[in-house]
Structure formats: C-alpha cells, structure tokens
TrEMBL record:
It holds the Pfam family ILEI. One of its GO terms (cellular component) is extracellular region. InterPro entries: FAM3, ILEI/PANDER_dom, ILEI_FAM3C. This is FAM3C protein. GO terms for molecular function: carbohydrate binding. Residues 102-189 form the ILEI/PANDER domain. The gene is Fam3c.
Amino acid sequence: CFLTGAAKLVVVIAIFLLTFYVISQVFEIKMDANLGHIFARSALDAAARSTKPPRYKCGISKACPEKHFAFKMSSGAANVVGPKICVEDNVLMSGVKNNVGRGINMALVNGKTGELLDTKFFDMWGGDVAPLIEFLKTIQDGTIVLMTTYDDGATKLNEEARKLIAELGSTSITNLGFRDNWVFCGGKGIKTKSPFEQHIKNNKDTNKYEGWPEVVEMEGCIPQKQD
C-alpha cells in the first residue's frame, strides 16, 4: 500500500509539473506574441513618422533660409470667408481672430525682429479712403507690410492711396479694380519692386464665385532687415 500511495504521489507531482510546464510555455508564447506585436507596431509608427513630410512655419512648402521670415497669406473668398495672414507661424489676421473686414486688410511687422506691430482693415466700398492714406503715411522705414483684399478693396482707392502703396513695392495696385483679389507683401523704404504679389481680376467669364474671382494665395521668405 505504501508503494502504491508513493507511486500515486509521484504521478500526481509529475502531472502537476507537466501541467505547470505546459501552461508556462503557452503563457510565454503569448507574451512573446504580444511583445512582438507591440514592437512591430512601434516600428510601423516610427516608419510612418519618418515618411511624414516635415511641417514648415505657416505651412509653407519649404523651409526658409537663415535670416528670413516665413509667411503665407490669402485673400478673402467672395464676401463670405475672410483673408488670412501668417508670419513665422503666427496667424496675424484671420476670420477666426475676428480682426479682418471688407476692403484692404493690412499687417505691419518689424523688419528686424518679425514682431507684429499693428493690424488694420479699411473699407474701400462703404468707407472713406482718408484713414487708409493717413495710416500709410505713418509707416516707419524698415517695416514689412502685408496687404490682402476681402470682398472689394478698390472702389474708394484714389491716386494718392495707390501711389503710397506703390512706394511699398507694389506694381498691381495701379490696376486693382472692383472685387479683384490681391495679396501683396512689401516694405517701407524698399528700393525695388516687391517679388511678393499676386493679383486676379474680377471677370464674370472666369470667376470661380458669382461676382468674385477665386481666392489668391501666396507664400515665401522675407529677408530680415540688416543694420
């Protein structure tokens, strides 16, 4: 009896150990599979991050060189969506910021630091051109001037206002007409015509919106003013 009982005990112990071994092996396999899945997912995430195109300031298509300010701007869309001006990843004017309006929208930026100095909009349909002229005359040398239209930016413009804007480097301002879309980046004291200007005429045969042309967008790198 003693041997029979001992034999049974040995069998029970053996079964227990075998069961424990099998369970531990299955557990380890599952752990390995889970770890493998985690590592595989991490590798895929890393690969996705490495293939994702880099984002540049203001969402422009390429990085600006040193001592340049990145900017991106757009005109308004008809009389529904306001214009937008961004410099160095800072949105200076937009409908979301609630600081845009019908007419000519303008942001002034320090040419050395990129710091925002002021934002204004001037109603060129129902307003008066005099405040625009007075404001243009106060702009200091070395100031970056970004301008964009919303709805109509030309009806109240006169020769004096157009001349002052042309002195900032604009060439299209002389031809800016009723409901044209226009974006421009120039500067006070600029010696040449600005390369940063886009202009789309209001033309009923080509307009994207009824009575208004398509939105005009522009991006680029503004050279920092040097002493």
